[in-house]
């Protein structure tokens, strides 16, 4: 498809075609893996758009165009991991600057802000971003970045992107949204006022648990220039094979997300009705606190479900997590296979227990990444595991 036609197309069509065209040398329909570190120049400084693979690579360029189109962005900048993408954003701050972030967020983001950048004089505070008055009160004169997750990790809370971006902009701060849990199929934060959208492309965008990557999408020219300078200067770039795998993943993103959503809805409803389950966190449940906001802000409720047992007993939670056959106990999320995670000891272990508990993250919380298997098998698997306690 011509780029002008892709720009007018729906998300499913963009996922398949955006940023790509047949290879001009061979006519290959699929973007080739340009496994090269450098490019020939006909004269000093005269080249065909690429000089050195740390700066650009044709496979990476195709992926960046694809992701930008999906996020309604002018620019997509790809990195070697989601953490590397986050690192690049924070690295644009300076000593004395302040970050205000969600208190319910990925543990790796917390660790990066507090333990990596804290010693360099970049402050960070973590607040409940569903409390807009609390967010306003926590803003400081030196707040330069408001870091938003929605749905959050691991409590899948939904926060108001537009309202939070308005607060950030009123204070002269940049608003960044980690959109990993939703993917651009369900939510496009730039359309709600965000300056930056960050992804761990390892998750839903790649979709097959076989590649690590990250990306930032933006319409802001200054941010695009700063981030591309960091790509060139710091070198946290994905390899061409990683980009190819992610680009392959985005082609099926829309249909995978539809199945993730329908399966997660059924799993959440099953868990909510189960006598041994105390609370279920899923935006698609009418009982969920952010349900109405999710209906307005999202085009679906996602594939992530968290829950706690009624008795809040760690031994029972361990029994459940150790006895599933379809769900695999593992880090990460967003793949076609269903995963089960214990945030307190796995993805969020770097957050001090007192801070986890203050944010509502129980030590017995179980997080599910609901895959695309037959939903009857997923429910049967959870049912038999719960029957063991």
TL;DR?
With 389 residues, this protein is α/β, with parallel strands linked by helices.
Strand content is 5-15%
CATH superfamily of the largest domain: Type I PLP-dependent aspartate aminotransferase-like (Major domain)
Q: Overall mean pLDDT score?
A: 96
Q: Which CATH architecture of the largest domain would you pick? A: 3-Layer(aba) Sandwich
- Quick one: overall form? globular
Widest β-sheet, arrangement of strands: 1-7-6-5-4-2-3
Sheet having the most strands = 7 strands, mixed
**What name is given to the CATH topology of the largest domain?**
Aspartate Aminotransferase, domain 2
- The CATH class of the largest domain is identified as Alpha Beta
Q: Give the number of DSSP strands.
A: 12
Q: Catalogue the unreliable spans.
A: none
Total number of distinct structural domains: 2
Estimate the helix proportion, in percent. 25-40%
Number of alpha- plus pi-helical segments: 15
Q: How far is the N terminus from the C terminus? A: 55 Å
Brief descriptors of the model:
389 residues, Aspartate Aminotransferase, domain 2, Aspartate Aminotransferase, domain 1, seven-stranded mixed beta sheet, alpha/beta, globular
Can you tell me about this structure?
With 389 residues, the protein is of the alpha/beta class. It has two domains: 3-251, 3-Layer(aba) Sandwich (Aspartate Aminotransferase, domain 2); 254-386, Aspartate Aminotransferase, domain 1, CATH 3.90.1150. Helix content is 38%, strand content 15%. The chain is built from 15 helices and twelve strands. It has helices at 3-8, 11-17, 58-70, 82-91, 107-116, 132-138, 161-170, 183-186, 221-234, 240-251, 253-273, 291-297, 314-321, 353-358, 375-386; strands at 75-79, 98-102, 123-127, 143-149, 174-178, 196-200, 214-218, 277-281, 304-309, 328-329, 339-341, 366-369. The strands form two sheets. The protein has a seven-stranded mixed sheet, with helices on both faces. The protein has a five-stranded mixed sheet with strand order 8-9-12-11-10, with helices on one face. Helix 2 (11-17) packs antiparallel against helix 3 and helix 3 packs parallel to helix 10 (240-251).
